[in-house]
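From the pipeline queue, job 12 of 40. The input is one protein chain; the requested action is below.

Action: predict structure.
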Amino acid sequence: MHGQRQLLSDHARSTAALAGRFAGEFGAEALGFALGLFHDAGKACELWQEGLVRAEKDGGRVGVPHKELGANLLRRVAGSAAMAILGHHGGLTKPPELWDLDPADAARGRYEVESFLGALPEAEKVLLGESMSLLPAGWRESTVAEMGVRLVFSALVDADHLDTTAHARGWARPRVRDDEDMAVLRDRFEAARRERLAGRVGSPIDAIRERVYQGAVRGAAEAPGAFRMPAPTGVGKTWASAGFALHHAARYGKRRVIVAVPFITVTEQNAAEYRAMLGADAVLEHHSAVQPPESGAAERALRPVVENWDSPFVVTTTVQLFDSLFARTPSRMRKLHRLANAVIVLDEVQALPLRVLTPILDALRILSEHFGTTVLLASATQPSFPEFDVWRGLSVRDVVDEPRALFAALRRVRYEWWSDPKPRLAEVAQRACSHQQALMVVNTTADARSVFRAWAEASVEGIFHLSTRMMPAHRRDVLARVHKRLAEGRPVRLVSTQLIEAGVDVDFPVVFRAFAPAEALQQAAGRANREGKLGADGVVVVFDARDMSSPAGYGIGSAVTGEIFGPRGDVVVRPDDVDALDRYYRTLYRRANAEYGTRAAAIQYNRKRLDFQAVADGPERAMGKFNGRDPSLAFRMLDDDTVPVAVTYHHNGATPAEAMVARLRDAAEQAGMVLRQLQPYLVALPNRLLRDPAIGALCKPVLGDLYEWTGPYDEHYGIDTTGGNEREVW
């Protein structure tokens, strides 16, 4: 028993030291230390008492739940931050859970309390502090305090997990990665960039790319805060944004760079590029949607593999970033403390969903102004974010000189509009394949398959298909073959969903784009004459087929696009017109009520109340005889949640995922490495599809929310779920 008591004392001290170290990144070292010290107070008491408190003691009470005792003791000096102790297993909830605790349970003189304080004298010193003295002074404002609680909760959870893992594996101490010297990474990146430039075939726009890059490096010397990179597609934002981030981090002592992009395809592409330039050990690619449960054997098995973003350079998705930032559970929030004193690069910021834009912008401002985070917004179609009240007065600096002149200099395409009369999708497909090399971008997976099948039935040469129904390894193989044919001048016709528009590096002479919001049209245009080598303008045909489909979220954006862009008498307003784009975004935000919409307002209201459960799961609502939560008012980047599905068989037989899935089922403790290796074979399916009996029957549970796909996998377009009740998008 003595050994167990000592073990718990050591765990409390070790967790406290780690949590204090992590929270020190945002000026809350004392608070993090205290939370770590008290987080298992009641559990320790049970052992220090050598069994349960006898019923005759303390009026018949038998013990105090360990989370509640620690939170109850600490709440006077930690305030609402003591919620982190209550939630360190199950998740943050709301302040009444803390303030409704019975003060008598934490009164001096109780056997549990005296046992705990006697075993950990450091805890006694914490409680002798002045009221609220542990909270940093800057946390007085409600939403700042809300962000502070999120980050210190993350620090506690990460510290607890690291120390628990060390004990379980017999290590002498927790294994915490030392901070990287960002100046070394910066120099390594610059050397790799020089080497690549020396070895590549030149392009007519290389001089402009160099100008943009050097502008980004100059901008990195400015004081930390918020920045924009308004640069056209094809101008090298992947390098320029990383150059800015690494130079800025090295100059101002930032601990890491976090690059967030909207689509997994771009994550894969950019992560591979950064690994090649910085070294594999320096770059973490984190976009896996595999989520462990919050308790039980599966949680314990997967606990060591929940990414905590301890790498100096992280590449992730905006969904992973912001869904975690507004989550409430330990597994989702463990990494959040890494956002403090970091450089966050948000690529393609125009893709952020309007319905939750206000809380996202508010959180970014708070991180920038109170937690040492520098934010860079990179996009060819820079939205008018400073018009939002939550950003009003915020200094947002451009790292690109004279963006209007830059856009004019990089116009490499001409637009054609095919909407009057509206064609049929088959007509567009036929016209597209009349070109030797053409890209056709449609709005849904159903339309992409329809076009591909039409081409196949007509025996069109050199046809390819891309959508997120294909596993990443399959998509990479298709893109490699497309690149090869383009370089060799051979016939290549590619039909794709929108996934190709966010940074995928292809260069076609002709692009056909289904009518969509202006930012999507411009992104598609970035795949035409990308290198400027045609000797003439590339062609972008914007078509509005009468039988094509579109995502529900395109409605307002497409309507505003139709009002502002396209033929206007003798004038054609291009989607890359900077002034027209500004009008477009202002009109879009006003018409969509993006700033003060019902969901955004509910999230902000609940953030100010520190009601983390209402933010993540939705506020409580009366639902018939029972109360429930309204998910339509919760923070969600995607309302149609997805689950990861491993593809173990395709047309050529078993994939490497077959052995990986077997390992996960047989040895869950090896999940960390296996899940990273599994990512190239995962397809994200909408959760609603698994509720369809025809599709759910083809998905076998593996671990957490990971499934194995047992249905057919087409060699051209991957998983086909049209047999089920699907409203297909992407």
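Job complete. The radius of gyration is 27 Å.
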